[in-house]
DNA sequence: CACATTGATGACGACATCGTCAGTTACGAG
DNA sequence: CTCGTAACTGACGATGTCGTCATCAATGTG
């Protein structure tokens, strides 16, 4: 039983699991959650019975797929916002980048949209990060918020509403729409309209680096 | 073919249809949309084959159920906001009453929550009313909104986020939470914080009048 | 009072999905 | 090289859901 040796067998298992998750994410992205398990395994190019080596039920697979996708994206966001001084800008940049996500990585966006508000109250994913950022900005005196949790309600709703809008209106400029909504939210959170506008006009780091699928296997 | 005579036969048909819709709403309220048709008909106390006299598919029934519920509530909102001078107050009162809805009529609230953002972009239901109210307030110079459609994104998201929150935290004061969110939104839409607070402190008409289920049959 | 029309009924055949399991393949240890 | 273990495989029986249809009940008509 090699403790530090992710040897062949384990690697194969991880690869298979990742293939299943990837396939599930693809189906979720198409809005088809009622897909037979057989179809999922075929899409993942594994045998039918293999599914049950990794998950008990379809829902379990979906849950794993969503958690994987959001954790990956959340980590990316954290990476891209390190080093910023202004907590308000950290929040704004996270929101703006999430808005950009919808066009750059529609599959992740659809996952977000499909599971919707479940994710807003979840302990994993983007919600806890947003809450953390808002609270930091409040402590720093940048935001004026009566109740952080209630502000989160609107912020989370706005994320999903924006995803929905961009999905239904492909012709709309996603960056402009996202920045506009971010601006509104910053104003709501206590910044002046002018300051909100200024922050949303600052340049953004690029999303196109890594990480869209399941965690690399080794 | 009696034009003005909803005679016995038609009344019976309408009653049966209403029973199906009511049963569907109950199941939706429990989050169970994958219920066998047989169960729905049993809950409605009608025969299995009867279902197909009224709807082609389960989705059709659900669609009818949702439209019915939201139109009923929307009409009620309109009724309760007639006679108000300030368009900003019309919007605020609509939002605040919708917030109250979640505790008073959980079944309607759950319907809202379950279908989520689909309803935000729908042509029927609450979204068009909210848009109408916002546009009226903008024309009257009460709101300052860069893009009405994008403001709608956040407002719709906030409605659903609030529903989710109140559903997961039954101990929370629904009126206080709703008014706080409304206040935030009014501030976002261009009112001063003080004015937003004042508007959300005004008394509200009572929701407890009619209309929670499908339209009365005659 | 007999007949026609419309809606309601529930049993039935067709179909799809599920989870299992007995057998196969790949890896690694002795 | 051989054997044991762990993962993979796909066919099969069991289960459950669907939509139809022949029949029944209720209402309205001549």
TrEMBL record, chains A, B:
<dbReference type="Pfam" id="PF00440">
    <property type="entry name" value="TetR_N"/>
</dbReference>
<keyword id="KW-0238">DNA-binding</keyword>
<dbReference type="InterPro" id="IPR036271">
    <property type="entry name" value="Tet_transcr_reg_TetR-rel_C_sf"/>
</dbReference>
<dbReference type="InterPro" id="IPR009057">
    <property type="entry name" value="Homeodomain-like_sf"/>
</dbReference>
<keyword id="KW-0804">Transcription</keyword>
<dbReference type="GO" id="GO:0003700">
    <property type="term" value="F:DNA-binding transcription factor activity"/>
</dbReference>
<dbReference type="GO" id="GO:0000976">
    <property type="term" value="F:transcription cis-regulatory region binding"/>
</dbReference>
<protein>
    <submittedName>
        <fullName>TetR/AcrR family transcriptional regulator</fullName>
    </submittedName>
</protein>
<feature type="DNA-binding region" description="H-T-H motif">
    <location>
        <begin position="36"/>
        <end position="55"/>
    </location>
</feature>
<dbReference type="Pfam" id="PF21306">
    <property type="entry name" value="TetR_C_40"/>
</dbReference>
<dbReference type="InterPro" id="IPR049513">
    <property type="entry name" value="TetR_C_40"/>
</dbReference>
<feature type="domain" description="HTH tetR-type">
    <location>
        <begin position="13"/>
        <end position="73"/>
    </location>
</feature>
<dbReference type="InterPro" id="IPR001647">
    <property type="entry name" value="HTH_TetR"/>
</dbReference>
<dbReference type="InterPro" id="IPR050109">
    <property type="entry name" value="HTH-type_TetR-like_transc_reg"/>
</dbReference>
<keyword id="KW-0805">Transcription regulation</keyword>
